């Protein structure tokens, strides 16, 4: 889902999935708009060899507090889960990523990878990462990484030297940062998401 709510909305989602043997659930999320947003889908990997993927991008601007992430419970044998997210904050926006991975004793051979990357566009914004892991078997491979950064002045200068305005250069860099989500979408939705990013980036200079 690509969500672009009015900036005075409270958007609180409830999404759940029960995955049987050999099944796969894929969550793809783009969170824009709303004053307060919460997106936290939960997946239970009940069957052996079941799988979950969560890919998301969040853009929090002025006056926004967006809380996103996912929870997965590994129950069956040889289950796997992957979370890969990007969060962007500007103009004092608050972006929070929560991840919860539970591996039951029965989930022998479970694999889980969680990756969160955050891009801060100014010093007034905020980005938090809140991971939680409850691993109840030794026969599991679990990984987590979190990164935070800012737009490189050198990258902006390079694009401007090729004829782009500063605003367009920064918007292009942010669109590239969110590419992990857009490449998973049908073309028409990917175009719409990039347009939303450009709209959010307008007036971001200065």
Task: Give a description of the structure.
Strands 2, 3, 5, 6, 8, 10 and 12 form a seven-stranded parallel sheet that branches. A six-stranded parallel sheet has the order 1-4-7-9-11-13, covered by helices on one side. It has one domain (2-150). The two termini are 32 Å apart. It contains four helices and 13 strands. The chain is an alpha/beta fold. The model has no long low-confidence stretch (mean pLDDT 91). It is 19% helix and 49% strand. Helix 1 (153-161) packs across helix 2 and helix 2 (166-177) crosses helix 4 (187-201).
Descriptors:
206 residues, six-stranded parallel β-sheet, single chain, seven-stranded parallel β-sheet, elongated, 13 strands, alpha/beta
Fold topology:
Layout: E1 2-5, E2 10-12, E3 16-19, E4 24-33, E5 36-39, E6 42-45, E7 51-60, E8 65-74, E9 80-89, E10 94-103, E11 110-120, E12 126-135, E13 140-150, H1 153-161, H2 166-177, H3 179-182, H4 187-201
Parallel strand pairs: 1-4, 2-5, 3-6, 4-7, 5-8, 6-8, 7-9, 8-10, 9-11, 10-12, 11-13
Count of β-strands: 13
Low-confidence stretches: none
The largest sheet is: 7 strands, parallel
Whole-angstrom Rg: 18 Å
Q: Mean of residue pLDDT?
A: 91
Q: Report the principal-axis shape.
A: elongated
Class from helix and strand fractions: alpha/beta
In helices, the fraction of residues equals: 10-25%
Count of DSSP-assigned helices: 4
Distance between the termini: 32 Å
Q: What percentage of amino acids are in beta strands?
A: over 45%
Domain module count: 1
